[in-house]
Amino acid sequence: GSGKVRAMTASDGAQRPPGAFDDLGLSGPLLSAVRARGFVALRPIQAEAIPPALAGRDVLGLARTGTGKTAAFVLPMLERLLREPAGSGHSARPRALILAPTRELCGQIAADVEAFAAETDLRCALVIGGVSAAPQRAAPTSLSRRRADCSIWCGTTRATSEAWRRSCSTRPTA
Questions:
Q1: Where are the beta strands (DSSP E) in the chain?
Q2: pLDDT (tens digit per residue) in 50-106
Q3: Is 129 exposed, middle or buried (0-12, 13-18, 19+ CB in 10 A)?
Q4: pLDDT at 19
Q5: Gyration radius from the chain CA atoms
């Protein structure tokens, strides 16, 4: 790869990307979490991807490992979840889903979600295969919460599909 960062949206505008997290208009709890992690200046993928994602546009971001991709998609997701509270009767369903190819990457992403959402009511469930549900619930963070209490699920494809199927088959119908 050329090492270039590229975020593409359905309707790229000519607007100049913001330079700092303070320029994004994030809510207080998210901005506080960003600052607590020592983030000040936006990385290129974040400057290009976060504004259109906050506006509800689809974004495809490509960048090397360690360039800030997780914050580039997690922060707008969390902000939109905070701005659009869950409807009544849907509290047991996830409102956002993050799929990753490996258990390790799912764990890293879920930990980042929890760190960014620390000052909010949003919680993330780690849904991975190869480990029984009990150890996942025994994890030392709020990733151990019951999946029904989590508005965000982060998991591998197969484990998430199976967990969803199980939760739907045990959920009472209205």
A1: 6-9, 59-62, 96-99, 124-127, 152-155
A2: 999 999 999 999 999 999 999 999 999 999 999 987 775 555 678 999 999 999 999
A3: middle
A4: 87
A5: 17
